[in-house]
């Protein structure tokens, strides 16, 4: 799969890929409430990721570089 043409490389999600060793962040394709649709720049997998934002559970400790 190629990179999604709608990818905005200026908006990255600072999570490690769950499909490959990439730990350099994921491209953010779209978002829906606390879910974001991300694509790995390395293996090009896409999936919905729960950011846990909006749950009132405090700061996301893994969300910042
Ligand atoms: Zn990957």
What does this structure look like?
The protein is mostly beta strands and 65 residues long. It has a domain at 8-50. Helices cover 0% and strands 35% of the residues. The chain is built from no helices and 4 strands. The chain has strands at residues 8-13, 26-32, 35-39, 46-50. It has a 4-stranded antiparallel β-sheet with strand order 1-2-3-4, with no helix packed on it. Strand 2 (26-32) and strand 3 (35-39) form a beta hairpin. The chain is globular and about 25 Å long. The model has no long low-confidence stretch (mean pLDDT 81). The protein binds zinc ion. Residues 17, 19-20, 22, 40, 42-43, 45 line the site of zinc ion.
Properties at a glance:
single chain; 65 residues; mainly beta; 0% helix; 35% strand; globular; binds zinc ion
Q: Ranges with pLDDT <50 over ≥5 residues?
A: none
The arrangement of helices and strands along the chain is EEEE
Radius of gyration: 12 Å
How much of the polypeptide forms β-strand, as a percent range? Answer: 35-45%
Strands ordered across the widest β-sheet = 1-2-3-4
Name every ligand kind in the structure. Answer: zinc ion
Q: What spatial form do the alpha-carbon principal axes imply?
A: globular
Can you count the beta strands? 4
Q: Describe the main β-sheet briefly.
A: 4 strands, antiparallel
Question: Would you tell me the structural class of the helices and strands?
Answer: mainly beta
How many H/I helical runs?
A: 0
Mean pLDDT across all amino acids:
81
| First-to-last CA distance | 27 Å
The level of helicity is: under 10%
